[in-house]
Design goal:
The structure is a homodimer. The first copy, chain A, has 16 helices and 16 strands. By secondary structure, chain A is an alpha/beta fold. Chain A folds into 3 domains: 64 residues, Winged helix-like DNA-binding domain superfamily/Winged helix DNA-binding domain (Arc Repressor Mutant, subunit A, Orthogonal Bundle); 139 residues, Alpha-Beta Complex (Aspartate Aminotransferase, domain 1), CATH 3.90.1150; 240 residues, Type I PLP-dependent aspartate aminotransferase-like (Major domain) (Aspartate Aminotransferase, domain 2, 3-Layer(aba) Sandwich). In chain A, the strands form 4 sheets. Chain A has an 8-stranded mixed β-sheet, with helices on both faces. In chain A, strands 1-3-2 form a 3-stranded antiparallel β-sheet. A 3-stranded antiparallel β-sheet of chain A has the order 13-16-15, with no helix packed on it. The longest helix of chain A is centred in the C-terminal third of the chain and has 27 residues. Chains A and B meet through helix 5, helix 7, helix 8, helix 10 and helix 12 of A and helix 5, helix 7, helix 8, helix 10 and helix 12 of B.
Amino acid sequence: MLITIDRNHPEPLYIQIKNRLRALIESGSLPPGYCLPPERKLAESLGVNRTTVLNAYRDLKSEGFLSSHVGQGTVVCRPVSMPDIEASAPLPLSWRHVYNQNADAYSSDITREILAIAGQKEMISFAAGIAIPELNPIAEIQEIWKCINEKYGASIFHHVPVEGLAALRQSICTLSGSRGIRAAEAETMILSGSQQGLDLLARLFVSPGDTVIMEEPSFFCARQIFEGCGARIIGIPLDETGMNLSMLESVLKRLKPKFIYTIPTFHNPTGAVMSLQNRQELLRLAYRYHLPIVEDDAYGELRYDGEQVPSLKALDNHGYVIYLSTFSKVLFMGLRIGWLHAPAQVIQKLTSVKQLSDLHTNSLAQYILDAFIRNKYYERHVRRVLAANKERRDIMHEALVRYAPKDIPLKWAVPQGGLYFWLQLPDSVPMARFYEESVRNGVVFVPDRVCCLEEPLGNHIRLNFTYPAADRISEGVRKLMEALEKVYRESEHAICTPGGYAPIL
Amino acid sequence: MLITIDRNHPEPLYIQIKNRLRALIESGSLPPGYCLPPERKLAESLGVNRTTVLNAYRDLKSEGFLSSHVGQGTVVCRPVSMPDIEASAPLPLSWRHVYNQNADAYSSDITREILAIAGQKEMISFAAGIAIPELNPIAEIQEIWKCINEKYGASIFHHVPVEGLAALRQSICTLSGSRGIRAAEAETMILSGSQQGLDLLARLFVSPGDTVIMEEPSFFCARQIFEGCGARIIGIPLDETGMNLSMLESVLKRLKPKFIYTIPTFHNPTGAVMSLQNRQELLRLAYRYHLPIVEDDAYGELRYDGEQVPSLKALDNHGYVIYLSTFSKVLFMGLRIGWLHAPAQVIQKLTSVKQLSDLHTNSLAQYILDAFIRNKYYERHVRRVLAANKERRDIMHEALVRYAPKDIPLKWAVPQGGLYFWLQLPDSVPMARFYEESVRNGVVFVPDRVCCLEEPLGNHIRLNFTYPAADRISEGVRKLMEALEKVYRESEHAICTPGGYAPIL
């Protein structure tokens, strides 16, 4: 706001200020609703007494140019002389008619809904897919902060290349090397979370009507992203050794999908680990049918026992596999840093898409993570995370054994890694009722339908064991089982009516 | 990698290790290409002598299971007994056939090209749209870091809501209030850079074939984003008072565009400021034709002299204007934080799109910016930026006056704000030749065709005055004018040939 005063002018200062403000209001430079600075502040900046400004404001109020309300400050009113741009009283805009045909794909807000419930104070959440929050390495981060400040100065706030900070890309190549993946810097791209990778791939590959193959069930956000680009999704059922490959091949004989999306290691939500043999067979199919594979390896590093199985990317020597991973399941989930390995030409194309999407990923976060890896804090932190996750997994398993009602047949495998139990309930348990009762009892989880394209087979729930504090896991399982027992008894009564089972969901 | 040894077993330890490694390689658990840990490291983790591991590795090498090269470490070879997944020697994948029909819209890499040239050591860049890099407030940031660590602890690395940290949204509402915009928290969304806002809006509003209206010329990334969603763009020419509204109305009578995208204040690239009268008339047209306006206010805060004109959003009382702004033109450009004001129902829908795009914006950056605003550092910093920008603008103006060749008619206005001069060259200057000669002379700029849909009218270049250091601006302008003079003389000779002008670009 430009106000100049002339101390040598015969006009009193407050009049000068008042006239100037009135001119600005009349010209529309200070529009209706504009908040003027507090008197004291304007007085300071003009080098006049507070009373001078007070007098100017008071006059303008009495002339109807300004109004003030407690807590709102001094606000410009609509002056009578201002041309009325609303002479014809416009209709409210119908935004629904502005949205495009994909807008409905953006309406499923299950994630937000579950997170909102999970965020309630007393709620015990088994619903999130979030790493142990207490393990964020605060001491190391202070070291890192010092170190990047000394080394890079203000650069940590400057722009970095679209495809990511070169140093971090190199660090990640080394990390991937230790997972058996050979990837050069040019085959590596930093993402604003690995979910951004799914989004960029969908935008580059999928046209409306294109087919995409996924496991059934699978990661629900991936499905929403593909559908948001107009993809037709085909779900291939999976067992504990991975997706049913003969079903996959029969699909590939009939259709030409754009790609297969798979989570081969500690599959979300089932926890399945695709066997080595199935991995090799899947690659053979990809080669035979010229089909890219998008491998989502968000959980592969989180193995607590059993033997490592190499990733599809590590087994692929022909550049058919696009590999996605993330730091968010281990630490700093809020920094939103993931990465992608793909043939250099695909990285180049994805870079053009990313450039339009968010220009580049937050620089500061990239400097922090790079230093974290180079200082060997990352390795050490992963070991801590593995130990802590394993402990919580065991607590949940023991609590399930302890609290599972004896006469209700439940099935689960102890996951060798990842973040979830996949608990099978009797078919007779009405899922919607169970979910409702469980939330009422203070525990939230992910019901299978959220992860499924079709009607769910069986009757499962996904239970995360890393987000709730160790001492609340048992309590949560106990409450969950109380809810289950209650709903199960209700449904037993329901079964007694002739006609037998009536699955509600 | 799981290796267990049994010290009580009669077999020597190195044989145990060797057999175990071989089994893992044969089963495929350690795939070809897998990097084994260095001998010393494995020895440490097993609690054996380094020689023990050395012997095991040596044997496996001689048997063809491992190989090692300097700098590469010890790597798993393809064992003969491993099932060959490549029996049928797969064809390389033709990625071009996997890309969708929009992929070509992602091929224009002018921004990256210009940034790459600008990044060369000795190059003086007038091409970027970047704030003064030296002004990033390093001292304040140390304060902020301490303050958010004490106040929030590890939360600064945790997830935050998709629509943004509540505290930052409130801070931004206050900031917008001081610009005359009344927006509630529910009408406010944090973006990963304001460019993400354009992307989310395009994805929510634009279907292939839909019309979008922009100024001609305009911000080239916005055009690319809209075209990436299949939009048909109509460009409305503008003069120094904003877009030609009678041309706009004649378009609106014939077509139903999805929205108008405009940069009313310190327009990019021309620097034009839409007059108050034109703003009111534009709103009238929007109301009459039920047309949303997307107002990009990246530069509005950067006014060095002249009078503030209220934003369209401040003038709009009917929720027709979606308002975008950013911190990146003032500070912390690498943090990628922008924001958007829109009716709450639109924010809700955009939140669903954003959730699939990057889940949420980097938390740490949001905590930093919120504290920066609350501690009043932001206000103070803006004042510093305004003073420094103004100084550089004046240096560039003076250099243009000093070095412009006397007989070459050049036209420019001194911009009252923003980051650019928009310099008009004689029509006879062949732009492509001039660009080439200027880069050869060590100066890069943005030629008008980059910002234009159609053949450019006139012959302009965009010169940024904030990114180059103050003492290099004069030097850059001198070199630019040398290049211009050289090319102009060449073209004078060309005009002498019968037939006259032959515009090359």
